[in-house]
Amino acid sequence: MKKISLLLTICFVIGYILPTLAQSNFETSLHKTRNGKSTWYNAENGGFETITNVPISEVGCVECHGATDANGDPYPANYVPSCVDCHATGSFTVEQSQCLSCHSREASIINKGIPDVHRSASMVCIDCHGEEELHGDDGVAYSSMFDPDAIQTDCQQAGCHVTIASNTEHNTHGADIHCTSCHASTNLTCLSCHFESQVVMKKRAFGQFTNFLILVNRDKDGKVHPASFQSLTYDGNTWIGMGPSVAHSITLTGARTCSDCHANFGGNIPAITDYNNGGGMKFATWNPADSTMSTLTGIVPLPVDYKYSFKMDFLKYNGDPNDPVTPPSKNWSVVKETADGFVLRYCTPLTTAQMDALGMDTTLVSVEKQINVVPEGFRLEQNYPNPFNPSTTIRYSIPQRSDVELIVYDALGHEIKTLISGDHDTGVYEVDFDATGLSSGVYFYQIKSASFTETRKLLLMK
Q: Are residues 293 and 328 in the same domain?
């Protein structure tokens, strides 16, 4: 009897207690909250809702899911994210198909036959993205997976590419350019999502496009990093949301060389040629003769005056929004080539110095668009560099005249230093924080206005 009782206890621990502990912070994880979608969409963040006035709760974005859960059962009408999205009942394993049923962009990369060295080595998502990311083990309800610490996985994480080979390219750019800017063969975007269709729960875009890599400065580490974007139309209005992004298309050999990025090193880069011709860079051009779209290929350096210079033919679907999404239709036409709204999150465009280094004609940059672009919303960016010693730079954006404070705190919440305090005009600002005299460790900096508060973490290492 004692053996039976012990066996039952073990089964209880394995079958109930351990799974409960493993997902103890699941309620705050991004897999549960889906905060990333509202962060990008909602009006208070300058998202697409500013143009549509349709709340995200009415378009099914947050509630999206695959055809069936991990048990193979159809989802109910009133869907709530839960463990069974990824795990079959009673199982600790996650099938790759469950990851790809939600992460459709990565599924598209695979379906297009684009190779990746990690997949070639039979690696799957959870080989790199561990429980601390999937279950939200730190208990923080992040706004997006791009928030600092939301995703720890990176090329040089512990146990992976800790040591980088010494060669001319790495030694020249290793401190300034992220590995994927050279080793990702492509990114992917869906062009011209038709929001009238999304409102009636039809996910319709003109098509998916690859063979490009937009380059930005990533907030997380200040390095040049690949980016991708969403482009949408609704009722004649157009919008772009862009941020750092890595499609899993990593190549070990055949990485980019100088001429793939530098027009002044003999490179033939369509985006740079386009920009230097004086008309900005047009990412996508509609071909009415055969109802196809041509896009820029190769690297696309995002210029400092991107709101003016980054253009594309935005398309609208001319049929009934309730039409079946498949087979692909050619019933599309051009709305305009400029964006009514352009949101850049978790990254910044290349600087004029970086543009010049690539062979871009910076005399074409409009000073007024470069300096006086009105931010879409309040924003506190990650400090750079981070970790730092002894000083670091913090950038923040103010969309309207406001009284603003920016204060640094220690890990116990004690105020260390007020960096700024007072009235600010609309604009983008930078301030330096000198930590001379402070001990190594984690600190926090917080920006406050009457309508906005955001806190980020910085790390002083001496």
A: yes
74, burial (CB in 10 Å: exposed 0-12, middle 13-18, buried 19+): exposed
Q: Is residue 54 part of a domain?
A: no
Residue 176 in domain: yes
pTM of the full predicted structure? 0.77
Q: Based on the domain organization, do 211 and 132 belong to the same domain?
A: no
Contact between residue 297 and residue 270 where contact means Cβ atoms under 8 Å apart: yes
Q: Rounded to an integer, what is the distance from CA 18 to the centroid of its chain?
A: 33
- pLDDT tens profile 98-153: 899 888 899 999 999 999 999 999 999 989 888 888 888 888 888 888 887 888 88
Report the distance separating Cα 295 and Cα 128, nearest Å: 32
Task: Choose among 93, 91, 81, 94: nearest CA to 28.
Answer: 81
One domain for residues 219 and 367: yes
Tokens of 277: 């011709």
Domain that holds residue 316: 160-373
d(CA 33, CA 25): 11
- Candidates 341, 323, 340; CA nearest to 332 is 323
R_g over Cα of the chain? 24
How many beta carbons lie within 10 A of that of residue 96, not counting itself? 15
